[in-house]
Amino acid sequence: MKKVLLAMMLLVVSMTAFAQRGGGDRTPEQRAENQTKLMTEKLGLSEKQQKQVYTLNLNRGQKMQALRESQNREGMRAEQENFRKELSAILTPDQQEKYKAMQQEMRQRGRLDRGPKSGQRGIKEHKHGAHKTRK
Fold first, then answer.
1. For residues 83 and 106, what is the distance between their CA atoms, to the nearest angstrom?
2. What is the mean predicted confidence (pLDDT) over 93-104?
3. DSSP codes joined into one string, 37-56
């Protein structure tokens, strides 16, 4: 009985963690639409750019879904790099700077939501960066 309860609790916790990541059940089309909408708001995309960015986001979403299913991390990295290059060709220099800032903000927010990476917990840099000490 205790094992069944423990298994059920683990299932609930894992489902909650997955749900908090967000987007787990969205289609590539829904993701592309949401990403394009966000980028339009943050970057001030023209109508032509919106269409190009939507197509780019959709293609990336479809490719990434297949790569995730096959657990091809190297392919995922390559696809991200390809996406960045193609996006740079669509955006103006000013929009590219805004996009970089947007990405940095999202990374920072993600770190705050998740806390420190494992292995970094309780470690702080020495004032001169010469060595690390435990708190």
1. 17
2. 95
3. HHHHHHH---HHHHHHHHHH
pLDDT tens for each residue of 57-75: 999 999 999 999 999 999 9
Look at residue 40 and tell me if it is in a domain. Answer: yes
Contact (Cβ atoms closer than 8 angstroms) between residue 99 and residue 43: yes
Q: What are phi and psi of 91, to 5 degrees?
A: -80, 150
Are 135 and 127 spatial neighbours (Cβ–Cβ below 8 Å)? no
Using CA atoms, how far apart are residues 55 and 51, in angstroms rounded to an integer?
6
Could you tell me the two tokens for 66?
């297949």
> Any long-range contacts for 46-53 (C-beta under 8 Å, 24+ apart)?
49/90, 49/91, 52/90, 53/87, 53/90
- Decide if 117 is inside a domain: no
Cβ contacts of 32 within 8 Å, gap of 6 or more: 54, 57, 58, 60, 61
**Model pTM greater than 0.70?**
no
Please give the tally of structural domains in the chain: 1
